[in-house]
Amino acid sequence: MNMAHEHVRIAVTDGEISGVEHVPARRIGNVEWKLLRSPLYATEVASGDVIRVTNDETGEFEIVIRGGNVCVQFYLGKPYADDAEVTMKVADEIAQDIKPLGGSMDAQTPGLIAFTIPVDVGFPAIEAVFAEAEERYPGAQWQYTNVYDPVTGESLGWWA
What we know:
four-stranded antiparallel sheet, single chain, alpha+beta, 9 strands, 2 helices
C-alpha cells in the first residue's frame, strides 16, 4: 500500500482568511484530502478528517467526514514563547502524557504545539492532561481548535 503523502493548503481563519497552512494529507479524490496530522494554525479540523478544498488559492474548505479526533493547541507563555528547545521538551512531555489516551504531537514551532487526541476518550480526560500541563508551565494556555466555532464560540457538536 502506498503511504506517500502530499500537503494540502488549508485556510487559516479567525472570521477572515488570514493565510494558508500546508498540512500533510493524502489525496483521496480530485479535491478531497484526508489530513494526516492536525494543523498548527488552521482551525475547525484535526488529523483524520476528510476535507474538500473549495478554493485552491485561499485554501477554503468544507469538512466531508470527521475523523473522530480533536486538535489541541498549546501555547507557551513568556519567557518560553520563542524558545525552540523548551518547546521541543514540552511537546515531548505532553506527548507522553497523551499517549495513553491514544494521542500524538503533530506539529510544533517555538511557543506553539498542536496535539491530536481521539474524542472518544472524553473531554474530561483531555482537559485534565492540559490543565496539569498549564500548571507545570506558568503562563501557558491551551485551546481546542475543532470543538468550538472560531467566530461564535458555540460548540460544533460533531462528536455527539
